[in-house]
Amino acid sequence: MPIHPFVEQKLPELRELCRRYHVTHLALFGSAVNGRFEAGRGDLGFVLKLELDPADGSSISDNYFDFLRAAESLFGCKIDTVLPTDQIENRYFREEIEQTAIPLYGAAASQPASRREA
What we know:
The chain has 118 residues and is an alpha+beta fold. The protein has one domain: Beta Polymerase, domain 2, CATH 3.30.460. 37% of the residues lie in helices and 19% in strands. The protein is built from five helices and four strands; from the N terminus they run H-H-E-H-E-H-E-H-E. The protein has helices at residues 5-8, 11-20, 31-34, 60-75, 91-100; strands spanning 23-29, 44-50, 79-82, 102-106.
């Protein structure tokens, strides 16, 4: 499934937000991958994983909420986030995400092995 052009055109800025706020994994799911997204009317759904112990001492909660605000500002719409799929209890929701999510950012491979992730 292709990424909606509304998201694709902002990928460089989105990836910079991921670096700034210690996101280790970001995947797009929902209407922006199934063709039903309408810019200006819909919201964007992301699977989000954050670094637990960033070297700069920032907190995971600050990074989460700062990323969320910055992404909403970047796209001009509401952003919904969910935990990585291995933490989603609802089997049907988990399967839907696993089958449709498109990875957009993954910094885990470039992080030292000693770093923990949320």
